[in-house]
Amino acid sequence: MPVKRKGPLQLVKREVDEITTQVDSLLNDVQNQVGPTEESFKRCQDLQISTEKTLRTLEKLTKADELAPIGNYDQRKQEEEGRLQSILERLNTLSLKLSPPGPSAAGDLSIKDSEDDDDDYNEDSNEDEDDEEDVDKAARGPQESIPHVYTVLSDFKGEQEGDLSVHKGEVLSIIRKTADGWWLAQDTKGNRGVVPRNYLKIGSVADNEYADEEEEDEDENEEEQSEEEEAQDGKELSEEQDKRSDAFNWSTVRKALTEIDATDVLSAMGAIPSGFRPSTLNKLLVEEGVTHKASHYVQPELSQSQLSFRDLFLEPDTGRVRARQVRSCVCFTLWSCRMIPTPGVGVQVLSRHVRMCAFDGTQVLSNIHTVRATYSPKSPKTWSFSPRMTGILPTLLDGDCFLRCDSASPNLGILFELGVTFIRNSTGERGDLSCGWAFLKLTDDTGNVLPNRTYELAVNGGTPYEGDVSVEASVPRGSSGGVFQQMLHARRRPKLIIKLKSGSSRTRAQLSLLPDTLLHCVNCIHLLVLHRQLLADTLLMERPSMHNADLKCSPILSTFPVLLDQLDLLDALRSSWLDAEASMSRAQKILHQRSSGPESSTPSWILSNTTSTPQARQEVRSSLLTPSTHILLLISQS
């Protein structure tokens, strides 16, 4: 009878059993001090290489490689991966204990570092390639890694046993590099421990300064060369790429991906999920200032002739703002977020929020609007919006929003970036993390507008410019296994639930009076319409001619855009507006009902320009505007 062949997973399981036996034997010999330490250290290195090789082989296996069907294949594979990870941790701890003393390693460093420094002076442009080679050497195992001198980029305080606390500018000797990013290092005092890779830069401080001076001399010589040589110069090419990318927000994205900040440190420590990134939209708000704020988009735009406005007109018969239709105008509600991972220990979350903007896949096309989420301590992975409360709902918590955008891009949609504001317990450092992003395209493949219904959007990790990044490594993106396992994986994936809805006829009419591009809260539409009408009255109706360019003094018009960026002051204005409407007299309410009938798109203070007597119009206008104007004047004076 022929011998039954074993499948790949069974062969790997046998290798894991053999490695486990060898590790137990090594630990027993070390504990009983059997044999020299150098021999034990060599055995430990060999076992590390063998374990990493087996782990890579196991990760490449799939269910289709098996000779016969295996029940619970994914579960068995995960169990073997867990065993290998546990073995690696035991070997790393043992390797730190058995590592050779520092002076001999430092002597080897002096010779090899001089050669490496010479290479750095001559080939400074190849630093990225050197870093990639370092990672490759680390992946091949500790035995093949070569020691180097590295400079510390930022302070690091060890939080666990075996960590090496270092300070910025300190020079370290790297004894061993590993693929997990934690390298064994030794400082100038002889202290040893592991340090995260992203805290280090190759070379000493003196070497870097000398290389920088040599780079500056080379740049000056290159500027004196011909235009053909300048076109081939790598530095000038990178500057041209930066100029082209500024229009598409690439400079900010590149900084978010390359700068070493608290997010990189937390990711290296395992304190946050692998898919978390520095907030891209928050960087746009901080670095590009008012460009992506609502106050920028409510200002009227001048036409090409600079003598009139491109998006602000008055109806000659009624004196009201002329309605303008745009290509995309939607109302939507943030419903909830589910299965959003939480940062680990060492990080305190101050707030959870969703930042939104119009996006076409390459650039931000509108202002960035933020809505804060609420959650229950019993289910921290579930976010909700628009909580119930007495009085008016603050704009920051209101999930009912609208978007107006006149872009003709076929990929136009709404970008949602889920984020948290955090503080590190150890250093007190604050920052903004992106917990993932989702995108809702406003048209289908045929170009038709999406129907009004509820949508479950998958939350992706990384940034909007990255692809196929999971928010959490433990949640696979692919669907392997049976139908039941696919259902379980689908329930574990992070989701954002959005509801598209059609506003009332009054809301749609009011939206047509707003700027061509704006994303904001639905409850602030009446204030935005008021600002739009006052703009038209001041800039169009009150000018003797279109050629008149005299400055206009209006504290309300100059202060209202500031309120859109200060949501607490905007809520105070909304509250005073409601109080003014509640305190209207009976005659004013009758005039309000007559002037703003069921088909009216604007409140009585706008329609009063053409209705009733001048005294009645002024009475209604002043009764509604006085409290709001008082708030605006106080803000403008402060």
TrEMBL record:
Pfam families attached to this UniProt entry: SH3_1 (PF00018)
GO CC terms of this entry: cilium; cytoplasm
Name the UniProt record assigns to this protein: Nephrocystin-1 isoform X3
Compositional bias of kind Polar residues: 593-614
Domain of life: Eukaryota
Comp. bias regions, Acidic residues: 114-135, 209-231
InterPro entries named among the record's database cross-references: NPHP1, NPHP1_SH3, SH3-like_dom_sf, SH3_domain
CDD domains to which the protein is assigned, alphabetical: SH3_Nephrocystin
Residues covered by the SH3 domain: 145-205
